[in-house]
Automatic annotation (TrEMBL):
Pfam families: MbnB_TglH_ChrH (PF05114). InterPro entries: MbnB/TglH/ChrH, Xyl_isomerase-like_sf. This is Uncharacterized protein. It comes from the Bacteria. Signal peptide: none annotated. Keywords: Plasmid. It comes from Asticcacaulis excentricus (strain ATCC 15261 / DSM 4724 / KCTC 12464 / NCIMB 9791 / VKM B-1370 / CB 48).
Length: 277
């Protein structure tokens, strides 16, 4: 299995159906697009035709939501075969998924569920990452989750858990700054401590997104513009992550493409201001 993954320092967007027509109609000022892998793990149809046309003009990253690395069973063989087929079709920048579990006994909750940060969970996740990386013959990127509960059994911090995953499996990281902001607020830890505890040299991609205010917790809804607090984290960490790609992530209340391109311009400008200051 390849043990290294070359950096790619572009600025991108998620490929979403409301924007298909505009993206295909004319070149867009983006360096890459990210897809939700499961939306394209199909035998045919318009989504794959659109993806083929987009891939002819832009690099593409694959981002999954159903690998369930924290569940006892992990991803099924059929899932991995379909994922591998899509990967072979488009030759992505990388393949990523989340530090979470999504189901058990063949049932998918369609939610990114938290797992206890224990040595038992570490062994389970490492076993599944090793299996997937061997199957795909490439390293995975693992995304930090947004969480709303912790477990009394936890023996790792989340940043310590992710760091150890990288050390044991050779995986890389997808750093979601909105998730760091949300979890730091919900659990009362320092976002700066979290970022300082990660092996930032293993980060290959970042997400910038928005969230919603619940009664007491922040909720990772991906349905709003990037807020000031997340932009502030981006400004802080950008000088140390010039080797990584960054994208604006929006999954609900999707605005016109022009609005997301404006946010992407803000990400570029803030990065330039702090890197070249």
């Amino acid at each position: 299995m390849p043990t290294s993954l070359a950096p790619f320092s572009g600025f991108g967007l998620g490929l979403r159906p409301p924007h298909y027509e505009a993206i295909l109609a004319s070149p867009q000022p983006v360096d890459f697009f990210e897809i939700i892998s499961e939306n394209f793990m199909i035998d045919g149809g318009r989504p794959l035709l659109v993806l083929d046309r987009v891939r002819a003009d832009y690099p593409v990253a694959m981002h999954g939501v159903s690998m369930s690395l924290g569940s006892p069973d992990g991803p099924g063989t059929d899932y991995l075969r379909r994922l591998h087929a899509l990967m072979t079709r488009i030759d992505p920048l990388w393949v990523s998924d989340h530090l979470c579990w999504t189901g058990v006994n063949g049932r998918n909750s369609h939610d990114l569920l938290p797992l206890p940060l224990t040595e038992e969970a570490m062994a389970t996740v490492c076993r599944h990452i090793d299996r997937v990386q061997t199957f795909l013959q490439r390293p995975l990127l693992i995304e930090n989750p947004s969480t709303y509960v912790t477990f009394a059994e936890d023996t790792y911090t989340e940043w310590g858990f992710l760091s150890e995953l990288c050390r044991r499996t050779g995986c890389y990281l997808l750093l979601d700054l909105n998730n760091v902001f949300v979890s730091a607020h919900n659990h009362g830890f320092s976002a700066q401590t979290y970022l300082n505890g990660l092996p930032l040299e293993r980060v290959r991609q970042m997400h910038l997104a928005g969230h919603s205010q619940g009664e007491t917790l922040l909720i990772d809804t991906h349905d709003a513009p990037v807020p000031d607090g997340v932009w502030a984290l981006w400004t802080e960490v950008a000088p140390r992550l010039s080797h990584a790609a960054v994208m604006i992530e929006r999954d609900d209340e999707i605005p016109p493409l022009s609005e997301l391109l404006s946010e992407l311009d803000t990400a570029r400008r803030l990065a330039s201001d702090v890197v070249y200051a």
